[in-house]
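A quick aside before the break. I want you to see a complete sequence-to-structure record at least once, exactly as it would be stored in a machine-readable document. Don't worry about memorizing anything.
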Amino acid sequence: MLRYLRYLLVLLCVTSYCVADQSDTTNSLQDLDAVVSQSFAAVGKSLCDSDPNMGALQQLLCSSQNGQRMDFGQQIIYINRPPQWRTHKAVNLLDKVGSDYLVTPGIGAHKLHIRKLPWNRARRTCIQEGGHLAIINSNSEEKLLLRVMEENKMTQAWLGVHDLYEEGDWNTILDEPMESSGYAKWTTKIANLPDNAGGKQHCGLLLKDGGMDDLDCAAGQPFFCEINF
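That is the input. The structure line, written in tokens, reads:
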């Protein structure tokens, strides 16, 4: 039975899907006995190999067919361009956040808006994009945003922190204490921050040299949006 299945798979590959020379087909005959004995699900999980002598079944998996969907039992494989593929359970982050967001595994997705807006309008803009004003949760995230600012020659940008409810009680845009966010660093280049100079500085922004400053929320500034995943 396995022998007939083997030749059927080779015939299907050669006539319909694979672009291979004669040597590839010959090599596939030698390899398919071991491959067919595995479950289709296991085969679906194997990464495509760039070896020109790969078996015919592997070539079938690796043929991109312009993003064609292939069904192997209960496993659905989506192939964009070889050797990259994903299962239906994976999250396509770029579809979720958009191509203008910087996606960093383990940190999040961020976008720097260079258009200057007051803090509240910046907040609404981020919501419209499916996110919120960025909340820094670690020194690594701060370094990431600082690099983006440097690349865009920005000196400061709004973050999702404020003390609008009560003077000195700093919270994130998600209504958690800023101290609990993992990042509450104020710049050391300005003394006694946050200082609420003029009695109107209730929104926080990131400075290009690191650390935050408090500023009048009505001031137009660039801003970071963030989308969590």
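Two observations worth writing down. Residues 2-17 form the longest helix (16 residues). The domain at 112-227 is CATH 3.10.100.10 (Mannose-Binding Protein A; Chain A). We'll return to this after the break.
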